[in-house]
Amino acid sequence: MSEQDTPSSKPDATETNSRATGGCGDPILRIQGVTKQFGGITALDGVDLTVDPGITGLIGPNGAGKTTLFNCLTGFHKPDDGQISLYETDITGKEPPTIAQQGMVRTFQIPRELADMTVFENLLLAPMNQHGERLLASWVRGEQFVEEEQTIRDRAREIAAFFELDHLLNEPAGSLSGGQRKLLEIARALLTDPDIVLLDEPLAGVNPTLEQKILSRIEDLVEDGYSFLLIEHDIDLIMDNCERVVVMHQGAVLTTGPPEEVQSDERVIEAYLGGDNV
């Protein structure tokens, strides 16, 4: 990939906020005893897990609790018990905007673009704490306001080019193909300047060519300092592209480890082929 195709490196988190106080080898996420019930059904049963920098894959049979865990991590559900820490900050039960401010965002299985707005407008909405969102600043367009707006526009164009969406900036987001909508969702997530992005089946229904493009972009982004926790049903894809794999079953973590260890674990084989897929 040429230099102009690669977005600017992610700023050092220690320069932009105080959340990244650990060393580069410290876990980004620490999940301790997280439980979630819906009525009489236990969706998460004391999940214990750490997520390190890089790409971590999250797999498990249907109903294992993967998306519920994502919802609890990002504030869309409040855990009934347990603790979630992003670096050393307790984010348990916080609202999604607060968690995004701390440095963690997510995508969804079904992309949630604003269909009637253009691709460019969708991207421009993503950055947080814009002066234009404040009532007074919207009336008084000072130099700071104008400079910030231009910076956001430049960054949006840069991200669009990185995901090869720049030729679609003026098109309605609802007119994009399914794969392009997934790219747009990842691009919007990155414009919040996160430390970690939770990807919920970003490759489902994507053709092989676009799949490889998305994976290549993710690998480039990891080199720029981003981390990813990835749900995906294609086990071979997870094993080939993730540094660490987490397997969930019946609402709990069954095992974690390097791909070569996980794929030979008899408990994993049983969970997929002979277990009770709740």
Quick structural overview:
The protein has 278 residues and is an alpha/beta fold. The chain contains 11 helices and 10 strands. The chain has 2 domains: 161 residues, Rossmann fold (3-Layer(aba) Sandwich), CATH 3.40.50; 83 residues, no CATH class.
Distance between the termini: 43 Å
Give me the CATH fold name of the largest domain.
Rossmann fold
What percentage of amino acids are in beta strands? 15-25%
Name the assembly state. Answer: single chain
Spell the H/E element sequence.
HEEEHEEHEHHHHEHEHEEHH
Radius of gyration: 19 Å
For CATH, the homologous superfamily of the largest domain is named as P-loop containing nucleotide triphosphate hydrolases
User: What is the number of helical segments per DSSP (H or I, 4+ residues)?
Assistant: 11
Q: How would you describe the shape?
A: globular
Strand order of the largest sheet: 6-7-8-3-9-10
| Secondary-structure arrangement, i.e. CATH architecture of the largest domain | 3-Layer(aba) Sandwich
CATH class categorisation of the largest domain = Alpha Beta
Q: What class, by secondary structure content?
A: alpha/beta
Helix content: 25-40%
